[in-house]
Amino acid sequence: MFLLRQFRFLFIRVDTIFVSATEKFHFGINLGLAKYYSDAISDSVKRVNEQKVRKGELTGKPPIGYISVYDVNDKRIDVIPDPARAHLVVKMFEMYATGNYSIRQIRNEMEKLGLKSNTKNPKPSSAGKIYNDLKNPFYYGQREIKKGALKGLHDHKYQPIVLKALFEKCQEVMAGYHKKPFKYASKPFVLRGMIKCADCGCTITPEIQKEHNYYSCTNYRRMHGKRIYVREEELLSPIYEVLKNIQLSDEKIQEITEDLKKSNQAKNEFHKQSLTTFRKEYDLYQKRIDNSFDLMADGSITTDMFNKKLKEYKEKQAELEAEMARYTNADENYYITANTVLNLAKRAYEIFKSSEVAEKRQLLNFLLQNLELKGRKLMFTMKTPFDTVLSANRCSNWLRGQDSNL
């Protein structure tokens, strides 16, 4: 009886889950139709997005620094720079382009200035978000499609808020930034991570022995039979000598200043003429844009023709803006460099001696390059223009002769 009950139970279970062939067929048809409907919607969305990309329109949310403009039907009609955030995004790029700020430092500064996301619940940008924003080409006039048939960079029709030259400078800084973890990063080593071995190319590493700082090659490539330890004071000795030799007297600084004033007159005239030429050409393209708009309004040209011309003229204007910015930055760097060189050349040794370890490292990075250790001898070269100051300071008459080309 027990076995009979078990068989009866199994028969009931099989009977309750039994599905006929017709029901399976109908289920398969419905499943196929549902998948076809889903794929058709997906294809339609892809086609619409591809058309928008070709027209230079945005398909998703605008990045921080931009806001969307909607019509009465809640349809987006334009994307414009955010008056409250665009200037902070530009500052973010400018800070990173200098190479003096890390992503985290920029993140902290942006939080102080009030840069937040344009969402329902605005929040400060994270370091990872700022890193991605600095790599976003949308800010200078292009958008990146990462997959699909249109993979690559495409122009968009919205107003850029960052010059392409500034964006590219940030990418150069980002590509050249390879921060290596260092075992003794917290120790007060002036030359930590700055010297290479002249024989094998390995890094010269510091360590503390008997309360003194010593430097030696890691000998990673096993090219040295014996590891040589050199005290930090011995390595700094030739650096002290160079810092003393680039010092200029007040008389020589006065001579340089007078010479710079004379050459500055010719430079200013050339700079002024160049900017005037660029501005005239920029205004010419702006006039062409205005004329094209009038022609479109009159029906003389189509909207597509106007958009094509607008894109062409805006690209020319962006190139001219980059050139004007380059000339302006070069002009600013001229005065900053001259002032820095004169001040350092006058007090380099005293500044270095009285500075903390971190400031000493910054000063050496500013003055020296190609530091190598050959045995116990430290070799290096001075960066421009301090190499010129070092050479000229050893001459009795070191100002160049004046000619017609100041």
Task: Explain what you see.
The termini are far apart. Helix 4 crosses helix 5 (127-134) and helix 8 runs antiparallel to helix 9 (303-354). Helices cover 56% and strands 12% of the residues. Strand 6 and strand 7 form a beta hairpin. The protein has 406 residues and is mainly alpha-helical. It has helices at residues 2-16, 21-55, 86-97, 103-113, 127-134, 164-175, 232-245, 250-298, 303-354, 357-367, 386-392, and strands at 66-70, 76-81, 142-145, 152-155, 196-197, 204-209, 212-217, 230-231, 368-374, 377-382.
Q: Gist?
A:
The protein is mainly α and 406 residues long. The chain has helices at residues 2-16, 21-55, 86-97, 103-113, 127-134, 164-175, 232-245, 250-298, 303-354, 357-367, 386-392; strands spanning 66-70, 76-81, 142-145, 152-155, 196-197, 204-209, 212-217, 230-231, 368-374, 377-382. A hairpin with a 2-residue loop joins β6 and β7.
Report the span from N to C terminus. 119 Å
Largest sheet: 3 strands, mixed
Beta strands, count: 10
The averaged pLDDT comes out at 78
Q: Provide the spatial order of strands within the biggest beta sheet.
A: 5-9-10
Task: Furnish the topology, listing elements before pairings.
Blueprint: H1 2-16, H2 21-55, E1 66-70, E2 76-81, H3 86-97, H4 103-113, H5 127-134, E3 142-145, E4 152-155, H6 164-175, E5 196-197, E6 204-209, E7 212-217, E8 230-231, H7 232-245, H8 250-298, H9 303-354, H10 357-367, E9 368-374, E10 377-382, H11 386-392
